[in-house]
């Protein structure tokens, strides 16, 4: 996969640009925000994502790796393709996308052309816990290095709120971690909660504190 290209910008249009690398010109699509930062003749490094659509390769370019991550994660949402994912980056910067998802602000995404209320709600539902503000991500990384899953306390509190007692909630989390070793490094709170509930089992007795 082509993850980045470093070369000279040869041509810029309203929705794509050409970068020359080793005598070869690569055409890539990009958001207006990314294209506005480019100048013809400028030597740049463009973060890229190569997609195959109808058997045709299409290259997308981004000014930062963070923009590319938002693009990739947005496309994981049901019904969201590269055109809409790129439109999101045309309206919001990566930090704003993370903030709106963290705040469950589905109305913000209806400002993006092509995204209606249903699609906006789907974005919030499917990306909740997957894209968090930078500050939370950095805090999560520190917690992860300390040996504790970043989601442990939140999942524990959620289980208590659902009616499980302290002992069973703690046991369920431990069982989930034993069953899936990758769960400890995950920052997806929703996935961690689902995994814990599966391990607790529907037949276990719930007790209200």
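-> sequence recovered:
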């Amino acid at each position: 996969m082509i993850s980045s290209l470093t070369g000279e910008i040869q041509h810029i249009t309203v929705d794509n640009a050409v970068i020359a690398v080793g005598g070869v010109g690569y055409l890539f699509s990009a958001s207006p925000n990314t294209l506005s930062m480019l100048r013809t003749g400028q030597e740049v490094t463009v973060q890229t994502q190569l997609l195959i659509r109808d058997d045709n390769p299409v290259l997308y370019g981004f000014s930062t790796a963070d923009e590319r991550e938002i693009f990739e994660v947005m496309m994981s949402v049901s019904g969201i393709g590269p055109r809409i994912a790129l439109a999101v980056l045309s309206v919001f910067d990566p930090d704003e996308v993370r903030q709106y998802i963290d705040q469950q602000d589905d109305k913000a995404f209806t400002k993006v052309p092509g995204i209606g209320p249903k699609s906006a709600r789907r974005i919030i539902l499917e990306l909740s816990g997957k894209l968090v503000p930078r500050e939370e991500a950095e805090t999560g990384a520190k917690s992860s290095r300390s040996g504790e899953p970043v989601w442990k306390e939140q999942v524990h509190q959620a289980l208590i709120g659902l009616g499980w007692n302290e002992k069973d909630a703690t046991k369920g989390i431990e069982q989930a971690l034993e069953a899936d070793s990758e769960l400890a490094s995950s920052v997806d709170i929703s996935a961690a909660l689902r995994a814990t509930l599966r391990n607790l089992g529907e037949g276990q007795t719930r007790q209200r504190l």
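The CA atoms of residues 68 and 199 lie 35 Å apart.
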